[in-house]
Specification:
By secondary structure, the protein is α+β, with helices and mostly antiparallel strands. It contains ten helices and ten strands. It binds flavin-adenine dinucleotide (FAD). Keywords: FAD, Flavoprotein, Oxidoreductase.
Length: 397
C-alpha cells in the first residue's frame, strides 16, 4: 500500500508472516466481506483459514504449541486483517486476550490444559467484564460468585456484550467474590468458564440468549450471558487464587488496547485506499476530483492520520515486547487511532459523494464499523482518564 504504515526494523520472519496474512486478506477476505457482512453471516471459511495460518496461536509460546511471536507481530497481523474486514479481527481479539491472561496469570496446570488447544483454535476464548449496568466502571461488577461449603463456587448474575459469546468455548468471567478486603478491586475474581459453542443453555446454569443485533461489526456474534447458580470448581479461578480478577482483567485490557488501535489502523488504511482510488476516478467540473485542492488536502490529512496512528500503535506494542510500562502509550495509541480512524473513514465517505451512501460501496460498511473503535476496550474519555492520571503522577510538582 504505497509508502504509508510501513514498519521499520522487522525481522525476516515477521515480514514473511505479514506477507502471508496480507495475501490471505486480499484473496480470501476482501472479496467476500461485503456479502457476508450484509447477510450478517459468520465467516466460517475465513476462520478456518486463520486456524491454518496459525493466527490463533500467534503469541502463544512454542512450548504450548503456538508460534511464540511478539505483540508487535500480532498487532501488525490484526491491522492487516481489519483492513480486510474488521469483524474478522474481532474473532481473534477476545481469544488473544484470554490466551494472554492465561500466559501471564494462569497456573501451570491451566496453561497446559488450555493453551495448546487455544493455539490450534480448538478452544476459542471470550472475555466478559461488562454487564447491563456497567461498562466503563468495572468496579461496579455485580455478578456474584459465592463460595460453597465444599470449596467450589456458584455464579449468579448477568453479563453483557460478550464478543464471541456464542462461538467461544472458554470465557474469562469477572465476578464479585467476598474476600473480606476493604478495596472493592480486591474482592473480584476471574473464573475460566467452560461452555459449548452456540446459543441457549451452553453449560449448567449458563444461558446465551442469542446474538445482539448491531449497527456494524456484523458476522461475529456479540451476546449476553446469564448465570443462574452455575457451579464451578475453585480450580477454574484464573491463577488459582481469588481476589486478583480486577488486576488480571486490566492487564488483559491493556494489550487489548494495542489490539483495538491496530484494528482502527486497519480501518483507516482501507478508508484511505478507497478514498484515494475513488478521487482519481470521479470527475467533476472537467477534472478528477483529486485535482481539486479541497480533496487533495483531505487526502493529505487522511494519509498523515494513518501514519501517526500506525506509528503510535507500533511504539506501544514494542514497549510491551521489551517489558516496559506502556499504560500511557497504549491508552494514547488507542485514543488517537480510533478517533483518527473515525475521521479518515468519514473523509473517505465524503470523497465518495452520494455513492458512499450506497450499500454497493465498501465505505458504507466502514462507516458503520469504525464507530465501534470509539467504544471497545474503553472509550476515549476513559483513555483520557488513564493517560491524564498517569501523567500527573510522572510530572507531580
Ligand atoms: C459491539 C460491542 C462488543 C463488546 N465486547 C465486549 C466484550 O467482549 N467483553 C466485555 O466485557 N465488554 C464488551 N463490550 C462492552 C464495552 O467494553 C463497553 O460498551 C464500553 O466499555 C463502554 O461502556 P458502557 O457501554 O457501559 O458505557 P458507559 O460506561 O455507560 O459510558 C457512557 C458514556 O459516559 C462516558 N463516561 C463514563 N464514565 C466516565 C467518566 N468517568 N468520565 C467521563 N466520561 C465517562 C463514556 O465515555 C461514554 O461516553 C462491547 C461493546 C460493544 C458495543
Amino acid at each position: 500500500m504505497g509508502r504509508l504504515a510501513e514498519t521499520e526494523g522487522l525481522t525476516d520472519i515477521q515480514e514473511e508472516i505479514l506477507k502471508t496474512v496480507r495475501q490471505f486478506v486480499d484473496e480470501k477476505v476482501i472479496p467476500v466481506a461485503q456479502e457476508l457482512e450484509h447477510a450478517d453471516e459468520y465467516p466460517t471459511e475465513i476462520v478456518e483459514g486463520l486456524k491454518e495460518l496459525g493466527i490463533f496461536g500467534l503469541m502463544i509460546p512454542e512450548e504450548y504449541g503456538g508460534l511464540g511471536e511478539s505483540l508487535l507481530t500480532y498487532a501488525l497481523c490484526v491491522e492487516e486483517i481489519a483492513r480486510g474486514w474488521m469483524s474478522v479481527s474481532g474473532v481473534i481479539n477476545t481469544h488473544f486476550i484470554v490466551a494472554y491472561m492465561l500466559m501471564q496469570h494462569g497456573t501451570e496446570e491451566q496453561k497446559q490444559k488450555y493453551l495448546p488447544k487455544m493455539a490450534t483454535g480448538e478452544v476459542r476464548g471470550a472475555f466478559s467484564m461488562s454487564e447491563p449496568g456497567l461498562g466503563s466502571d468495572v468496579s461496579a461488577v455485580s455478578t456474584k460468585a459465592t463460595k460453597q461449603a465444599d470449596g467450589s463456587y456458584e455464579i449468579t448474575g448477568q453479563k453483557m456484550w460478550l464478543t464471541n459469546g456464542g462461538s467461544s468455548t472458554l470465557v474469562a468471567v469477572l465476578t464479585k467474590t467476598d474476600e473480606g478486603a476493604e478495596s472493592v478491586y480486591k474482592n473480584m475474581t476471574t473464573f475460566l468458564v467452560e461452555k459449548t459453542p452456540g446459543f441457549g443453555e451452553v453449560a449448567q446454569g449458563v444461558t446465551v440468549p442469542g446474538k445482539i443485533d448491531k449497527m456494524g461489526y456484523k458476522g461475529i456474534d456479540t451476546t449476553e450471558m446469564i448465570f443462574e447458580g452455575h457451579k464451578i470448581s475453585a480450580d477454574q479461578i484464573l491463577g488459582g487464587e481469588p481476589g486478583k480478577g480486577f488486576f488480571q482483567m486490566m492487564d488483559g485490557v491493556e494489550v487489548g488496547r494495542v489490539n483495538v488501535a491496530a484494528r482502527a489502523c486497519g480501518l483507516a488504511i482501507r478508508g484511505f485506499e478507497l478514498g484515494i482510488a475513488y478521487s482519481q476516478q470521479r470527475q467533476t467540473f472537467g477534472k478528477k476530483i483529486a485535482d481539486h485542492q479541497a480533496i487533495l488536502f483531505r487526502l493529505a490529512e487522511m494519509g498523515t492520520k494513518v501514519e501517526v496512528s500506525h506509528n503510535m500503535m507500533v511504539r506501544a506494542a514494542r514497549l510491551k515486547d521489551t517489558g516496559k510500562r506502556m499504560d500511557v502509550e497504549a491508552g494514547m495509541a488507542k485514543m488517537v487511532a480510533s478517533e483518527y480512524a473515525n475521521e479518515v473513514v468519514e473523509d473517505s465517505f465524503r470523497i465518495h459523494g452520494g455513492y458512499g451512501y450506497s450499500k454497493e460501496y465498501e465505505i458504507e460498511r466502514l462507516m458503520r464499523e469504525v464507530k465501534f473503535m470509539l467504544i471497545g476496550e474503553g472509550t476515549s474519555d476513559i483513555q483520557k482518564m488513564i493517560i491524564g492520571r498517569s501523567l500527573l503522577k510522572d510530572y507531580r510538582s
